[in-house]
Amino acid sequence: MARIPEEEVNAVRAKADIVDVISKYLQVQKKGKDYKAVCPFHDDHDPSMTISPDKQIYKCFVCGAGGNVFTFVQNYENVSFPEAVEHVASLIGYRLSVSGTHEEKPKDAHRENLYRILNETIRYTMYQMNTSEAQMEKVYLEKRGLNEDIREKFQIGFNPAGDVLLQFLKAKGYEERDMAACNVIRTGATGVHDVFSGRITFPIHDISGNPIGFSARTLDRDNPSKYINTNDTELFKKSDLVYNAHRARTSARREGKIFVCEGVTDVIAFARAGIENAVCTLGTSCTDHQIGILKNLAVKIVFCYDGDDAGQAATYRAAKMARKAGCTVSVIDNKTGLDPDEIIRERGAGALKELASQEISWMEFVLNYLQKHTNFQNYLEKKEFVQKAQAEINELEDEFDRKYFTEELSRISGFHLEYQPKTTVFRRDKLAAVKIPSGSVQAEEQILAMMLASKSAAARFEERIGFLMDPSRNELAMLMIDAYRTRDRIDPSAFIDEVEDQNQKNLISKLTGSFAYRSYDSSLLDGAIRKVLITVKTNQADAFKEQLSHPMNQASREALLNEYQECLKELRGYIDEDSKE
C-alpha cells in the first residue's frame, strides 16, 4: 500500500470541515455553536452525537464513540485509515499526489481469474433458475416466499443435474484446474463432475463483495446432505467468513447493531422483513476471526441463533467470545421453537420484526441459560451456577447492572450475596494492587484533560507522579509526554490520528469537552494528582496490612512493618495537604 505523505494528511485534515463531511452521511442540526446528529454507531433515536466545528471533533455521549473527520469515515465506512483519507480528500476536492493508495498493490491475476469463474457460475445458475429444468426448485422457493426480487437480490440460482456447469465454463475458456480451485467441479473415481449438481445455489461473498463460494440445497429427500458448502479453498474458509457481511455493512453501521443468525435462509428471512443488518456464520461454531468481522460491522452484536438447546449453547459460547473481544452483546429471546425462516413463513414478516425487537441483555440470557442447566437440589451444582454467574456479573461495566444482577442471583440461588463495587486493577509493583474507585477515574481524566491542553501541565504531571493507575489512561499520558518533546501544543484532532487504540481516540474527544481542558489550573491539577496518590497509598497500605496478617519470621515482619508505617506516613501527608486546599 502506497503511503500518503504526512503533510498531505495534515492538509486534508486542515481543509476538511467535519460538519460538512458528516452531513454527507447523516442529517445534522445546529445546536448553539455545535451540531447534533443521530449517532450511527449505536441504536440511537435522540441525537446524542455532538460535532464541534471549533475542535473538528465528534463525540457521542451515549456509546462513547469519538474522533476526528478521518475516524468518522473510517468507522462509518469500515475502511482503513489511508482509504478514509482518500474518501475525505475526494469529498473536499483535494488531489492527493498518491492516487488510489488502497489499490496500489498489484492484483493477483490468479485470484482475479477465480473470481471471474465464480461470477460466471453465479450468472449461469441464476439464468438456469428460470428454465423448465428448475421448475420444481422455483416452485419450492416461491412457496417459501423467496420471490423473484429476493432471488435477484441474493443471486439465488440452480445448478442443473449432470455436468452442465463444467461444460459451460469450458466453453467460456476456463481451465479445469481453476474450476477445481474454486470447488465448483471436482474429480472423482468416475471423472470430473459439478460439485453442486441438482442443487439450489446461494452465493457467498467476502467482506469486499467478491464471490468466494456457495451454500447449496437439494430437494432430494433421499440425499442425506440437505445443505452442502464449498470446501475450503484459497478463497473460501468457512471459519473466516460471515455470510452477507458485504450487504449488511452499511445498515449495520447506521443501526449500530448486527443480527447474527445460524443459516443463509434466516438472513434472507430478516431481509424479507425489512431488516437488512443480518448475517450468519454458516452454523453455530463461531471463531475469533468471525467475531473480529462482526465487531468491525457494528458496536453491538445481537445473537439470534435457534431457541433449541444446541442454539442456546452456541449463543452462550459465541457471546462470551464477543464480550471478551470488547463487543456489546444482546440476545433475541426466541421462545417460539421456530427459526427466523420458519417464523416468517408461518407467521409473517410482522412476527419476525416483533421477535427482532425482543432483545434481552447478555446477563439476562446468562441467568436463564445457566438456570436451565442446573439442578438446584444439588448443592455443588448450585454453587457452580453462582460462581459462573458471578464471574459474568463482575465483568459488567454498569454499576446499576452489577448491583441488580447480584440481587437477582441471590434471589434465584437462595444464597446471600454481597454486592461489590467494581474496581480496576493496576499493578505498580509486586506488592500492591491499586484499586481505582470512580473518584480516581475522574481525577485521572482531569489530569489527562489538562495535559492535553497544556505542555506545562504535562511537565508538572511528570514531575509530581509520572504515572496513572489505569493502563490505557497511563499509556495515553505517555503518548502526550512524547508528543510534547517535539512541539509546544497538541492539536486534539491531529493527535487522534497518532493514537491507535479506538478507546483512547474516544477519550481524547471526551476530554476536549471537559472543564479541565478549557481552563488549565495548576492547583486543580495538583489536587487531581493528590487524589490519585491517596488512592495508590491507601491500597498499598491495605496490601501491607493484609500481608502482616499472615505468619512470617520476626525479621520479615519488622521490615514489612517499617514499610507499612512509611506508607501510612506518606498517605497522611497527602491527606493533610489535600485538606488544606
Explain this structure.
There is one protein chain. This protein is an alpha+beta fold. It has 5 domains: 6-103, Zinc finger, CHC2-typedomain (DNA Primase, Chain A, Alpha-Beta Complex), CATH 3.90.580; 109-236, DNA primase, catalytic core, N-terminal domain (DNA primase DNAg catalytic core, N-terminal domain), CATH 3.90.980; 240-368, Dna Topoisomerase Vi A Subunit, Chain: A, domain 2 (3-Layer(aba) Sandwich); 374-413; 433-580, DNAb Helicase, Chain A (Orthogonal Bundle). The protein is 53% helix and 12% strand. The protein has a 5-stranded antiparallel β-sheet. Helix 13 (309-324) links the parallel strand 14 and strand 15. The longest helix has 27 residues, at 522-548. The two termini are 55 Å apart. The model is unreliable at 423-434 (pLDDT under 50).
* Main sheet record: 5 strands, antiparallel
The rounded Rg comes to 29 Å
Spatial strand sequence of the major β-sheet: 1-2-3-4-5
| Helix fraction bin | 40-55%
CATH class label of the largest domain: Mainly Alpha
- Quote the beta fraction: 5-15%
- Gross morphology is globular
CATH topology of the largest domain: DNAb Helicase, Chain A
Number of strand segments: 18
Give the total of domains. 5
The CATH fourth-level homologous superfamily of the largest domain: DNAb Helicase, Chain A
CATH architectural label of the largest domain: Orthogonal Bundle
Q: What's the overall average pLDDT, rounded?
A: 87
Distance between the termini: 55 Å
Number of helices: 26
Structural class: alpha+beta
